[in-house]
Prior knowledge:
Blueprint lengths: L5 H26 L4 E6 L14 E7 L3 H10 L7 E4 L13 E7 L8 H11 E12 L5 H11 L3 H4 L9 H7 L3 E8 L1 H4 L8 E7 L2
Parallel strand pairs: 1-2, 1-4, 2-3, 4-5
Antiparallel strand pairs: 5-7, 6-7
Helix pairs in contact: 1-2
Amino acid sequence: MKHRHPMFARYYARASLALERGVAAHRAALLNGLSGRVIEVGAGNGLNFRHYPDAVTEVVAVEPEPHLRSIAESSAGQSTVPVTIVDGLADHLPAADGSCDAAIACLVLCTVPDQDIALAEIRRVLRPGGELRFFEHVRAATPARRVLQKTLDATIWPWFGGGCHCGRDTRTAIERAGFVIDRIERLTTADSRIPFPSTPQILGTAIRP
């Protein structure tokens, strides 16, 4: 399955490590209390793996970009739970209907071509009552910053960021997909050290009814 962003993948593999001083604690909060079978959509270079709690019986880590997937395979050894790395896309997840107890979307819904399709797929693979755990950067609160994000998304940002869109209203997309948000926290650069335009972020849990 071809989904190559070689320049971005190599940049992200380095930049994500530099951001971990601000992001690692939020990764831990994202995954805290999980159990059962989990699908991680867009696992990147596997920085979440070491944060999975022991009650998780399996992680199916989906990553389409070959360079990042190869790093993720190495990162899987940092986890205390079984991690299976698979090639796949958010709009066609390699999992059966209702086969997962939880799904993880961590800094990935900005990159998918169609959030509605991706979230419908996540809902499909979750069992009723299953959790979507999300940590995503979203559109800014102020009109001026929203205009700048919109301009970047229409020009250079997706090219620079491997398909990333910095100004998406991801909370609304999650709710539109039929999820019920159970918990949500809004973070700023002061909380995560992720700079604008990839700020603010939302961190939370949504339930498949």
